[in-house]
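Hypothesis: this fold can be encoded by more than one sequence.
Test: take the structure tokens below, design a sequence, compare later.
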């Protein structure tokens, strides 16, 4: 008698639930949004790699707004959230604060957008410079039966994320909004890239292509035209970067510590130097400029000539492997770092942290 095929699980019913069942207010939503996995989810929805800037750089007093950086362009991204249908107060607040900080992107999160507010966002995207983008994002909650809830960011405008354009800084936002009322202006012509910028863009494009093709744990980003490319590593205040050093003919892979706790986090990592280097299989350079909130842990590849395109596959392979190693070694570890642990031990005996500079 033939055996019966294994039974399949029944399908559950996917239900959309009111966001107020999980977040009681916008003040309750804000701490959830700043978590690295959630800000990364928002970044994926709008196709911008986001990192929350440290509290000391948050240039807004409103509890509903959050300031981030676009790690591909280093532009400011202003986010405002409300757990209710959209209303004019939030829009006017966004425009005012966006003008103050020269934002390159403004993200409006709400549980529901009115047709009128969507029309305004679409109009702004059509009539302001292409270096300034407006996003409308609905926050939704879903549940299957009694299973855990799942949050989703649904991009409602623009219908497709706009292509990132690298330009000079745009004129102030208030001037951009006023000018179209008087006359339509032709879109400004982009300044041509320099040969060095073109080479940077081509090189980083090849690296990002390899990260995607190989299924790397390091998520590819929009390739920049600068000599540095940054990747998220799961915690605000930390960046995983690759750097082209043309003048000194080497490449570097770097873990950058950037916020007010950088010195303490650096000290905690330095205490594990031996273990870290044994995990990686190579020595690290440790750079801690005194009294600065930026520390760097890095490795280098010498004798690099970017003008020799035949060597690019070798350089890309080295960067792919190194970035992968850095992410696998540091990503979980930095989640557990607590600056208070360092201060508790070193407040009476600060000692000296190793200071090593980039190779000359």
């Amino acid at each position: 008698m033939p055996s019966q095929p294994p039974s399949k699980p029944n399908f559950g019913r996917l239900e959309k639930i009111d966001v107020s069942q999980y977040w009681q207010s916008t003040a309750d939503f804000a701490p959830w949004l700043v978590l690295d996995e959630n800000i990364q989810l928002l970044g994926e929805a709008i196709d911008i790699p986001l990192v929350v800037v440290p509290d000391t750089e948050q240039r807004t007093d409103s509890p509903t707004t959050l300031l981030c950086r676009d790690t591909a362009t280093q532009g400011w991204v202003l986010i405002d959230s409300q757990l209710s249908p959209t209303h004019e107060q939030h829009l006017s607040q966004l425009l005012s604060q966006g003008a103050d900080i020269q934002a390159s992107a403004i993200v409006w999160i709400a549980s529901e957008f009115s047709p009128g507010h969507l029309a305004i966002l679409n109009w702004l995207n059509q009539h302001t410079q292409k270096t300034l983008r407006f996003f409308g994002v609905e926050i939704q909650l879903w549940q299957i039966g009694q299973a855990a809830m799942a949050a989703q960011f649904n991009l409602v405008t623009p219908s497709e994320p706009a292509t990132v354009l690298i330009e000079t800084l745009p004129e102030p936002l208030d001037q951009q909004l006023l000018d179209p009322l008087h006359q339509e202006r032709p879109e400004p012509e982009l300044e041509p890239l320099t040969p060095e910028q073109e080479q940077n863009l081509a090189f980083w494009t090849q690296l990002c292509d390899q990260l995607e093709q190989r299924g790397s744990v390091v998520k590819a980003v929009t390739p920049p035209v600068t000599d540095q490319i940054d990747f998220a590593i799961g915690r605000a205040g930390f960046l995983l970067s690759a750097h082209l050093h043309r003048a000194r003919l080497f490449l570097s892979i770097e873990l950058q510590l950037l916020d007010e706790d950088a010195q303490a986090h650096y000290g905690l990592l330095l205490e594990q130097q031996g273990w870290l280097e044994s995990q990686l299989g190579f020595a690290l350079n440790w750079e801690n400029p005194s009294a600065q909130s930026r520390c760097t842990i890095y490795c280098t590849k010498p004798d690099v000539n970017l003008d020799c395109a035949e060597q690019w596959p070798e350089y890309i392979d080295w960067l792919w492997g190194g970035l992968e190693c850095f992410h696998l070694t540091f990503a979980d570890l930095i989640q557990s770092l607590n600056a208070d642990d360092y201060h508790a031990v070193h407040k009476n005996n600060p000692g000296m942290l190793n200071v090593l500079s980039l190779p000359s």
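The CA atoms of residues 82 and 110 lie 5 Å apart. The radius of gyration is 23 Å.
Hypothesis status: open.
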